[in-house]
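Protocol check, entry for the methods section draft. Step 1: assemble the input record (protein sequence plus ligand SMILES). Step 2: submit for complex structure prediction. Step 3: store the structure tokens unaltered in the notebook. Ligand used here: pyridoxal-5'-phosphate. Step 1 record:
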Amino acid sequence: MALSEIAQKVGTPCYVYSHRTLERHFNVFAQALDGIPHLICYSMKANSNRSILQIFLQRGGGLDIVSGGELYRAMQAGAAPQKIVFSGVGKTEAEIAMALQADILMFNVESEGELERIQHVASQQGIKARVALRVNPDIDPKTHPYIATGLKKSKFGIAINDALRLFEKAKTLSHIAVHGVDCHIGSQITELDPFVDALHKLKELIHDLRSQYQLPIRYLDLGGGLGIPYQDETPPHPDEYAARIREETEGLDCTLIFEPGRVLVGNAGLLLTEVQYLKRHEEKTFVIVDSGMNHLIRPALYQAWQAIQPVKKRAGQPWVVDVVGPICESGDFFALDRELSPVEPGDLLAVMSSGAYGYSMASQYNSYPRPAEVLVKGAAFAVIRERESYSELSRGENTPLFDL
Ligand SMILES: *Cc1c(COP(=O)(O)O)cnc(C)c1O
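Step 3, stored output:
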């Protein structure tokens, strides 16, 4: 499928995803875990388009959600509640009530306050809430600080030193059923050691919980975080990741839960954008395109590097350019001092590896409508989300009764 044809029919900017790659990524991950009792709960915050969710759901996957809105989308996509786990540090009473009513598999509880709140809401509904406690194992995942979540100083999870006390407390609560132990130490992790170090600490904890507190821990949730190649990273293949975990969990007698996000969708998508202007300053050449941090914030937020390829390569020596968007922010760039073959206004560029944390983090900043999303399957493509219209920009805005 030619990207130029998609651009012509759908317009730019748009996200383009490959069905074949999405399917392959899921199958590779699932096959790596073959023979291990497990559930793959795709972390839908990476890309929550309904069609993407359904590709994974139809192949036996479940979902990891972090909000009531994600639960709503999960149900719309037809997810089985028994395959949904609910993570996140700020669950409101309403979100907890909604998830209890939906009868999801488990809450990943991130604090003592949340545990008490779930007990309270479950008692109001007269049911028992299944929970795992998300433990913070104090492991350095060696990734960007904004996506490291398992260090002592992180807001996520329950400090490992406080975990036994909270499990003991959870056991005494009338409307709480403790089913598991959970951790998620970060994202874009490119080595196995941090995963294995975390697993060692959790295994010790599970042992203590079973022997000292007679808690029947049935689920071990290892979170997500497996990295992908954006540039020259060499993250472990899911086969290597699974082999280590298989080895380490032999005889543990737990169903393992995985929450992969990026590794399933990241390299299955790109952002297609059109060059608007070339602008030369004394020290810089800017390639100004029709999309920016409003649609893909990773470079601005995480100093992330993503490959950029011209859809049709022009002859000539490469230039060194900044690829920037139209947004009124100096942080609005896709690439700085990047070698790029020559381009002209009207040319199409593909910002690669944009399937994860791309559209799902997009905003309407500067009042640009969010882009369309396109799914390619073989020789066919479908717009799986329409480009937003101008009228959607002001949807829900009211004029007050008092004078302005
Ligand atoms: C974001 C997140 C994930 C997914 O992380 P990836 O790096 O995309 O695999 C999994 N679990 C939790 C709790 C998360 O917050």
